[in-house]
Amino acid sequence: GDTLMSNIRPYLKKAWLVDRKGTCSTDVLVFHPTSVEPGYLYWLIASDAFVRYVMSAAKGSKMPRGDKKHIMEMPLLLPNKDEQRKIDDCLSSLNDVIIKAKNELAKWQELKERDTANKPVQTEDGMVCPICGSKAVPWSRFCDECGQRWWEKED
């Protein structure tokens, strides 16, 4: 597959290894691998070094665009195709781990926000559960009525 890269504001590192047929705008650069492994080419284009190189000749200040001629002149040292596949496999595996970790972290952050947002509320009658309104037992971490849990902030 081809690798696509947004040529508008290249510093955003919007690159995609194409996995389907389609069309793209003229503000997207299409890299068609001929003598390089597609996955390896993607990792080259998504790299900080490539983006720095593109930005070194970018034109425009508000919405900089890469210079296509400059991009095509970037010198590359390519390992053999077997080594390229190994590098692609390694980086893809690391990326999968990173994506999984980010998703897991997002779940934990959502759980924390949900739990801490529903702490017992102080009223004239004492602490009450913000979900069901039943009286909250001060030493409990859970509402006896609805099961909502809450945490006290540590001092």
Question: Could you explain the architecture of this structure?
Answer:
By secondary structure, the protein is α+β, with helices and mostly antiparallel strands. Helices cover 37% and strands 11% of the residues. The chain is built from 4 helices and 5 strands. A 3-stranded antiparallel beta sheet has the order 2-1-3. Strands 4-5 form a two-stranded antiparallel sheet. A hairpin with a 2-residue loop joins β4 and β5 (126-128). The mean pLDDT is 87.
Taken in chain order, the helices and strands follow as EEEHHHHEE
Mean pLDDT: 87
Regions with pLDDT < 50 over 5+ consecutive residues?
A: none
Intertermini distance: 55 Å
* Cα-based radius of gyration, to the nearest Å: 26 Å
Biggest β-sheet: count, sense, barrel?
3 strands, antiparallel
* Number of E-state strands: 5
Oligomeric description of these chains: single chain
What is the 3D shape?
Answer: elongated
DSSP helix fraction: 25-40%
Q: What fraction strand?
A: 5-15%
